[in-house]
Amino acid sequence: MFDKTNETKVLRDPVHGYIHVKYQVIWDCINAKEFQRLHRIHQLGGDFQIYHTAEHSRFSHSLGVYEITRRMCEEVDSITATLSEYEKIQVLCAALLHDLGHGPFSHFFETLHKKHHEQMTCDLILDPETEIHKALVKEDESLPQNIVLILTHKHPKPMMHQMISSQLDADRMDYLLRDAYETGTSYGNFDLERILRTLRVKNDSLCVKMSGMHSVEDYIMARYHMYWQVYLHPDAKSYEIMIQQFFKRYEKIRNISVFEPLMNGELSNNDFYLMDEHRMFYGFQQALASEDEILKDFANRILNRHLFEWIEDPSDQQMQDIKLKLIESGYDLDYYYYEAISHSKAYLPYTENDENQIIWMLDSKNELVSLSSCSQIVKALLKMKNQTNKRIYFPKEIL
């Protein structure tokens, strides 16, 4: 038997109504300092600079992923019948902790830290000194390792990682609904209830009854619109460029103590725990007093939202004109002129490059067929031609 809380704990949530916790190990993980740190990490990186209500955190998203996974385990009969209680605890812990290793400003932090958040998550779970590890081994000695197997897609039951990380998973389902709600947009909405109702297990793999196909199509289109309207917003990219250029300059200055653990190589797990967005903003505030004018300027731009202007698909003449104006105004092109290139194929909401990426549908003969073989919408998406988009970013003062 696995320890239960004295009563089912509930946490209010704007997306799911309530988050339900009945296992003590889940409650202990939520209260561990490494998980509490996620309160201090924005879910959407720099998007809160564009959508002013997008102040939600990795903490709330992680609870949401846990809740959807809990509902899969308890409401989808074929999942309930397939997993033992211990396996359910493993996948619930993996859902809760999947973003434990995220740093400030979303994925940009990884370019400074030189370690992907997935690896950092596993390191924190396996480190005997972390409160998370202690909470897990208190329940079962093998729990940390089994969670890591799920998160690294190495668990002998692939269905367990599919529930959290696949083309149709609790992670994506929560962040689409949550990010749409918090940004005040409707792009990310889809029928979660219908998908859960039509979710099945076949050959130890997740699949969806054919009657749920249109709900899956809506989910995929929600991803498509959220990427192009929210996640890839050019002003959000501008904010990221501010931070990137700040640290490009900082590498030559190295005079702010709070950034030094990050710049000196691999962070210890305790250094990582302290490196939240509060610490980063404190460093930017310190940089306002820097004697280096470029570093001071970028700190001011970050703190007071003086974003770069941008031009989509500029002509060669436009690029030359902007560079000339920057030089005439005394700006260093190394820092104040930036070219960003994106490929539409990199942000497709759905691909079927290999079997692990396919959303499987369960047809009337109880056989598995790929989503693209029965959905005209998805078939059309897979035929989209790759387009390359270019933007140039620069201070708007020169215009």
Automatic annotation (TrEMBL):
GO biological process: dGTP catabolic process
GO MF terms, alphabetically ordered: dGTPase activity
PANTHER family registered for this protein in UniProt: DEOXYNUCLEOSIDE TRIPHOSPHATE TRIPHOSPHOHYDROLASE, DEOXYNUCLEOSIDE TRIPHOSPHATE TRIPHOSPHOHYDROLASE SAMHD1
Organism: Holdemanella biformis DSM 3989
Database matches in Pfam families: HD (PF01966), HD_assoc_2 (PF19276)
Protein name: HD domain protein
Domain HD: 58-176
PROSITE patterns: HD
